[in-house]
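Replying to the earlier thread about multi-chain prediction with a worked example.

Input:
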Amino acid sequence: MKKLIAAAALISASSFAMADNGPAGCGLGTAVVFPDANEWHEHVLAATTNGTSGNQTFGMTSGTLGCESANGPLKAAEAFMNDNMDQLAADSARGQGETLDALAQVMGVEAADTAAFRATVQSNFDSMFTTEATAGDAFRSLTEAMSQDEALQKYVG
Amino acid sequence: MGHQLKLILLAALLAMFSSSSVLAASDTSHFKAIPADDLRDLASHQQWLHLLHYRQHPYTFRFISQNDSPEFFLAEKGKSHAYDELVADLNAFLLTSQADNASAQCRFPARYHWLKHRLPQVGFVDQPCSEFDEWRDELNAHRLTLIFPASHINSPSSMYGHTLVRMDREDPSSSKLLAYSVNFAANADPTDNELVFSYKGLSGGYPGEVSVMPYYVKTNQYQHMEYRDTWEYELDFGSAEVDQFVRHVWELQDTAFDYFFFDENCSYRLLTMLDAASSRSDLAADFKMKAVPVDTIRALYDAGFVSREFYRPSAASVMESNAALASEQEAELARTIVEGDTPIDALLAGLPEESQIRVLELAYSYARYLSVKKKQANPVLRKRTLQILSARSKLPAGDVFPAPRKPEFRDDEGHGTSRLSLGGGYTREQWHGDINWRIAYHDVLDPSKGFSPGAQIEMGDFYTRVTEDGDVRLQKLTLVNVLSLSHKTRFQNPVAWTVSAGLDRFNHEGSELFSRFNLGFGRAWQLPFGLRDGKRLGSARVFALGDMTARADNQFDDGYQVSAGVRAGWLWQGRLNQELIQFRWQPVALGDETPRRELTIEEAFNGFDDVQLRFGFSRQWASSEAVNSWKLTYAWYF
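Result:
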């Protein structure tokens, strides 16, 4: 694949990192929640030029599910969190939402345990999301909390 | 010779070649032994041409492929000779004992699938393609959904729009965010400046490439950062067609099409990809000179491909909808929480739980708005946003606000993008006839159904005038005319702005064509009219902009005039009519020092079926000399 043209790709900086992560294709969990705007609003500006920016990601080297096949659902969950920290924080605080449900799906949480998953995430908001915590830290707090829960411990093995 | 016999001969011949793995892919001489009619039929089959992205060139009328990468063809002349490409591909597909992922079958799985289906007599042997198989299984596509992010708030240039395709999983409860999406976009060079960027964009100077990424990458961008509402159109493509679409997307990997903003753009390319995937689909043929994204959606409707629509409100729509449902006190408290540093518990103390949740939800939306839209990058706001969410996490889960109301009209239900108007007028005691043709897209007086109120973008607007004396002349030409009269709301405080450029004339006697550039910034306020039972029947606003106009022509002293002043007005956009009354006052000027003023009153009445009747009056002053002009026009949208 051709080299990524950095400014042309609109996706968050964390996704670039993912593309560079070698064969595993998984994020390192480096993103923090609500990064300072001056690092990322440029992407918004670039985006106003509508459909004139692309990147050559083709599904395999980026994205959560590439990780799933290569490294299992837990690694995929961390990568997903890395790409969706802001929406995930908002959903976690209210204990529901599309992004939270997507995380549950990536982790393989079954429908019967969804309510427990949502409740666990909401009640552990403070340990998962702090100003300094990266997606990797948030992920470790989440799996720690899930391993304390009878219904959810089976997903973190 | 019988049809069947020919096929048998062909099959025999092909089978013969298949045993020879040293055959050069471009070698066509071996096919001369048989009548080539069948091969020729196949090579000129619409589906084969669609798979190769062959289209008639709009100027040369030649059929050539729009794909500009040599990698997309096996034959040397594959870009212009579909027959050569067919022969080369057939030869290559017949090779056996190929290494995993190395065969032409793996490189062009959609072509291979189609030819295999068309030539069942030929003994194709499937070669191993583990990379493609893995990729296809990961996408796991069962349905296609066309995604249309509507215009940004306060960014009329985005009204032009963008489209992509989401490949949905079979299980409808599966997360849409995790589904993959296919996006066609130009790879602009970030070191190019705006002018080079525009020029290259229009002239095909950037390569357009297909990318595949999870849909959440797009929702994070459109829904949460750009604040664009999104329409999702589920397409009626069967699973065989979806499979072929996926195969074809794979074929486009690492190839490029020159990207042209107006015709060969994102939306056009998606149509050609759908055409390649389905023999029922011949959608791109109608878009020879331009492909406005919303028109491509209309084409999908006309062809019966849209089965359902879904509305995905942006974070801004959620905030506005919630703010309208909250009490004045709750909204004020939300603002206080975001802007101050008093402990949140103390501010919320005494409020009922549900009210606390409403305040915190609003506060969160507002904090994000400040960060994303107002670019207030500071650690304090960041910390405060986390405190807001932390407080929210201590309260019961669930929604306290209903989802935003779905807009009554989708963007694709608005008027046609091109406009032709015929009119007559009376200026300086002279009658004249006007013909006006606008390529795209919308002005604030056009029927407002399906468009953001207060937003306008016009591109390529030509006015020709026939005067009483029989003169025919270009009266006016607008290259681009953007007006954004976004209004202040409880939480949002956008800048209203305008920029336009083109050629124009004054109404004064003997005024010749001059070039004109206009720029303005200011504020707009929505007025509480047009509401009935909480439902908006129309939108009324007033606006005031600082106004700067530069004009150049030898009719001006020193050859130019730069005027500065104020532009203020009233705009009503309703179901049946639109009205714009505005006054421009330009007392200060550089170069030519003539002070100018202009009053315009325009009334537009919407008819059925994309037509409109418009009435206009303007009075222009140059120094103290004033000229009146009256106009009546009838417009068709198409």
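Chain A has one domain: 6-155.

Feel free to reuse this layout for your own posts.
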